[in-house]
């Protein structure tokens, strides 16, 4: 059967519509990564697609030997928004560290970290938040940095912590939305403080950690490739009709 101009037009129109649909889809809605410290793995991930893999929370530059997670001094006394819903401190386990004091140093300051890996496209990280408890020898300041520049730059305006052994929730948008296109490790550093921290004693705890991530859609090239494949399939179908 001869392929008429009207058939070519219909195939082109269908292909164009597929491309436009991919473009108009736009970025996905904001997604939430959440850890309540009952396990090192994320407790939940809302609106996060399968193209993103999230690692466990771990810890570095710990002053001695302490459990990463335990139920001592369970979180309490604060509320936070989780997927738009006011939520109370989760209690149960929290992530604990024996933090060093002094000015921020990527080589010696204590941190909690997690890793995000996109298998396709990229991911923008928009904000970070968590409950925090410092003892009188715990850190008084915190910041977020990434492996993208070997932890050289603050991604947020450094925040303050209160070292009175009470829980409080801290939250900060990134100074500029971070666009990650490869495996990226994010570190929450705690530093500053006064007194003399004891070895093997957890003087800083965090809980109810949230990271707001907006996954990017497929690239234009991917969308166009998919549309072209479908268009060619439609053309073959019409030739055989």
Structure described in brief:
The protein is of the alpha+beta class and 241 residues long. 17% of the residues lie in helices and 37% in strands.
Structure description:
The protein has helices spanning 5-25, 220-240; strands spanning 31-35, 44-46, 52-54, 58-60, 69-70, 79-82, 85-88, 94-97, 110-118, 123-134, 141-146, 159-160, 168-180, 184-191, 204-213. The protein is α+β, with helices and mostly antiparallel strands and 241 residues long. The protein folds into two domains: 1-26 and 225-241; 28-216, Sandwich (Jelly Rolls). The strands form three sheets. Strands 1, 2, 5, 8, 10, 13 and 15 form a seven-stranded antiparallel sheet that branches. Strands 3, 4, 9, 11, 12 and 14 form a six-stranded antiparallel sheet that branches. The longest helix has 21 residues, at 5-25. The termini are close together.
């Amino acid at each position: 059967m001869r392929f008429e101009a009207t058939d070519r037009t219909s195939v082109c129109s269908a292909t164009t519509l597929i491309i436009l649909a991919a473009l108009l889809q736009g970025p996905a809605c904001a997604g939430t990564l959440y850890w309540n410290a009952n396990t090192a793995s994320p407790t939940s991930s809302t609106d996060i697609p399968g193209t993103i893999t999230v690692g466990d929370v771990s810890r570095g530059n710990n002053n001695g030997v302490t459990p990463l997670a335990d139920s001592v001094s369970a979180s309490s006394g604060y509320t936070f928004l989780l997927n738009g819903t006011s939520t109370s401190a989760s209690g149960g386990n929290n992530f604990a560290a024996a933090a060093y004091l002094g000015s921020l140093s990527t080589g010696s300051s204590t941190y909690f970290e997690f890793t995000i890996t996109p298998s396709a496209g990229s991911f923008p990280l928009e904000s970070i938040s968590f409950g925090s408890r410092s003892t009188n020898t715990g850190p008084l300041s915190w910041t977020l940095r990434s492996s993208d520049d070997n932890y050289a730059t603050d991604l947020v305006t450094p925040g303050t912590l209160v070292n009175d052994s009470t829980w409080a929730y801290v939250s900060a948008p990134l100074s500029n939305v971070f666009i990650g296109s490869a495996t990226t490790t994010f570190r929450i550093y705690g530093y500053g403080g006064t007194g003399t921290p004891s070895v093997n004693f957890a003087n800083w705890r965090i809980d109810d950690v949230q990271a707001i991530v907006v996954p990017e859609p497929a690239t234009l090239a991917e969308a166009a490739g998919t549309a072209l494949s479908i268009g060619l399939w439609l053309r073959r179908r019409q030739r055989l009709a």
